[in-house]
Specification:
361 residues; mainly beta; Porin; two-stranded antiparallel sheet; 4 helices; 17 strands; 8% helix; Membrane protein; signal
Length: 361
């Protein structure tokens, strides 16, 4: 477990960088399990798992629209029913994005995940898992890069909107141009997942999660400018809950070839995202496996997927080909993602006492 604590400390340091403030949006959603469902914490065979994913939404735009996520999780202790192969999982996740000219983001955004895996069979090949997550976020915006009504109408400051009056011309500190939220926003998520395998080692996974179930408030620190003339808190809004339904099925067609259809459906307020994907894998040799596939974000983009597994390391790439109005604007062709995760396995070698063979004469 010593390496687990060291890796946890390393990823905690990653949160000192200014990360983002919006909900996670990945094409390779199966490569970022803790953003999909807190019940994924510890849902693997090994000592610990560490991974990350980076997405550049519009690669050819001059402004930054990027998302990143890092995670580490592990099965930590056995459950209450030790004879039924129950166990408890835990994980840490750090994530965020940057959006546009104002660099909308956060100075810290992360979550602690916990899960309990209930065995449904004595063989331990079927489990139903309950997951819980608590996240903390602090938001920021580079206000001197924002454009308001008078900027667009070229009023030369003669008519100031209430938003401009609250934000002013920017931060008074030239070394820190960001307005920060004064307190961290606390968010809670829950998840439920079924996971089972058969004697051919085929995998079925079905899950549901709900993020931001407490509808936390978030906003920026503007001092007395937080309040409008009517007394309303102008820079505080409630974060809507996000509902996620996901499924994955891996079928081994031969000793070398497998297929893995998967589905993601997530909804928040009036927006719904549906992403079906199909991956195929080919076992090149004992240590290397190649993966490739396609996906479709309904009404938005076609997705190309590729990757390789080397022992316990998995690396994935994806490219979104935009199909909407932005598909030809300024040469935009879509979004790029790079993801990787690694399962650490540390086992003590059994100390077997030598046995003496005494033949019968």
């Amino acid at each position: 477990m010593r390496i687990f604590y060291r890796l946890s400390f390393f990823f905690l340091l990653c949160t000192t960088a200014q990360l983002g403030a919006q909900d996670i949006h990945f094409s390779q959603y199966n490569m970022s399990p803790l953003t999909l469902n807190p019940a994924h914490a510890g849902a693997f065979f090994g000592t610990a798992r560490i991974g990350g994913i980076y997405r550049d939404q519009w690669l050819f735009l001059p402004k930054d629209f990027s998302t990143r996520s890092f995670f580490i999780d592990a099965p930590v202790v056995k459950g209450f029913r030790k004879k039924r192969n129950d166990w408890v999982g835990a994980g840490f996740m750090f994530y965020g994005d940057r959006a546009g000219t104002s660099r909308l983001g956060s100075s810290m955004q992360g979550a602690i995940n916990g899960s309990y895996h209930f065995a449904l069979s004595k063989k331990g090949n079927q489990h139903i898992t309950l997951g819980l997550s608590m996240g903390s976020s602090k938001y920021s915006v580079q206000a001197d890069s924002l454009r308001f009504e008078e900027d667009i109408l070229n009023n030369s400051g003669q008519l100031l909107t209430s938003d401009r009056q609250r934000f002013g011309l920017g931060s008074a500190n030239p070394n820190d141009p960001y307005y920060q939220s004064p307190l961290a926003s606390r968010s809670f998520s829950v998840g439920l997942m079924y996971r089972g395998t058969n004697k051919e080692n085929d995998l079925l996974e079905l899950g549901f999660s709900a993020a931001h179930v407490n509808s936390p408030e978030y906003g920026f620190s503007l001092g007395s400018r937080d309040t409008t003339p009517t007394g309303k808190k102008a820079n505080k809004v409630k974060r809507p809950s996000r509902l996620v339904l996901h499924g994955l099925y891996t079928k081994h067609l031969t000793d070398k070839i497998s297929i893995s259809p998967s589905l993601l459906v997530q909804s928040t307020t009036s927006s719904t995202e549906i992403v079906p994907e199909m991956m195929a894998g080919y076992q090149w040799n004992k240590d290397i496996r190649f993966n490739a596939g396609v996906g479709y974000r309904v009404g938005d983009a076609a997705i190309l997927l590729a990757g390789v597994d080397h022992k316990d390391l998995r690396v994935g790439l994806s490219w979104d080909m935009r199909l909407g109005e932005l598909s030809s604007d300024r040469g935009i062709k879509g979004g790029f993602e790079l993801a990787a995760n690694y399962i650490i396995k540390i086992y003590k070698k059994p100390n077997v006492p030598p046995s003496l063979l005494c033949p019968r004469l």
